[in-house]
Amino acid sequence: MTGGDGSRQLLLATVLVVEDNEVNLTLVRDLLEHHGYHVVVARDGEEGVALARAKRPAVILMDLQMPRMDGFAATREIRRDPLISATPVVALTGFAMAEDRERAVAAGCDEVICKPVKIAEVVATVRRHAGVPGA
């Protein structure tokens, strides 16, 4: 990967972003790519589970409200699959109530980030879960 100044950047890890909202998806993808991550995109939970199995990302950022299969069901499916069950899943949600956080954790999410996302929080969370030194 080449930076905007022509320098080479090391790809840190693969992050799967499961998000159906194009604006949110573009923001998170561009942010993570800028910080050196390889980003794989899924637009619903079914596609997210399939890509998690195929790509084995270091971290999954999972929207909770999506068509076909929501993030709760997708996370439960990931947790049932021994090949990907240990993959950190971070919920991205517009829900800020304590019971919504509890529901996400009960489904298997490791952490919850509320939308609108804060750039520093997303990067720090991905670094921490991806095992990046200095995170």
Q: Could you characterize the architecture of this molecule?
A:
The two termini are 21 Å apart. Strands 2-1-3-4-5 form a five-stranded parallel beta sheet, with helices on both faces. With 135 residues, the chain is of the alpha/beta class. It has helices at 22-34, 45-55, 71-80, 98-107, 119-130; strands at 14-18, 38-42, 59-63, 89-93, 111-114. It has one domain (14-130): Response regulator (Rossmann fold, 3-Layer(aba) Sandwich), CATH 3.40.50. Strand 4 (89-93), helix 4 (98-107) and strand 5 form a beta-alpha-beta unit. The longest helix is centred in the first third of the chain and has 13 residues, at 22-34. Helix 2 (45-55) runs parallel beside helix 3.
Looking at this protein, list some descriptive labels.
single chain, 135 residues, alpha/beta, Rossmann fold, 5 helices, 18% strand, globular
